[in-house]
């Protein structure tokens, strides 16, 4: 299967924060952001694999900055690495200053998706060839994150997580 670059799966969703999507502090509700990120990540995974894709795991979410009512929010999702049937999707969330238009990073997240056939059985996906320094950094660390996700899900024994162990030994 021919490799693809992360930019081939790049998915950008830009939308406003409306009153029905906020918490009592008038900031974007966390679950709404998770749903928006899941949608962007699923499109990126579909662009990479050209298959049906399902969310296997939300590996990491950092709500570093609150996002105020009325903000313009841009979600950028790209496949950072693929394995056999699974893909890691890296998501960067930006907010845009109304007056200057300058973008600031608000959050980031990492999701795992699996490509499946019509019966929901996992199927192989193309490999990823990272291009930029940031893409290479994210690619290199992805196996470690996959092992951590599998250990936390009870699908891998800690003793088998070679990449994780290498961090501490
Ligand atoms: C777009 C949406 O929101 S879809 C709705 C939400 N998601 C769903 O409904 C998915 C429900 N879950 C499922 O269908 C299944 O659990 C699947 C397809 C995700 C995985 O099925 P499994 O029977 O575990 O398959 P299997 O063990 O072969 O794993 C398939 C791949 O998923 C990976 N995987 C499974 N669980 C995890 C996890 N928690 N974290 C990271 N990767 C995982 C495996 O490592 C494997 O990757 P690889 O082939 O690249 O090495």
TrEMBL record:
InterPro entries referenced in this protein's UniProt entry, alphabetically: Cytosol_ACT, HOTDOG_ACOT, HotDog_dom_sf, Thioestr_dom
GO BP: acyl-CoA metabolic process
Pfam families linked: 4HBT
A cellular-component GO term for this protein: cytoplasm
UniProt keyword annotations, A-Z: Hydrolase
Segments forming domain HotDog ACOT-type: 7-119
Keyword Hydrolase: yes
GO MF: long-chain fatty acyl-CoA hydrolase activity
Family: Belongs to the acyl coenzyme A hydrolase family.
Record's protein name: Acyl-CoA hydrolase
Species annotation: Flavobacterium caeni
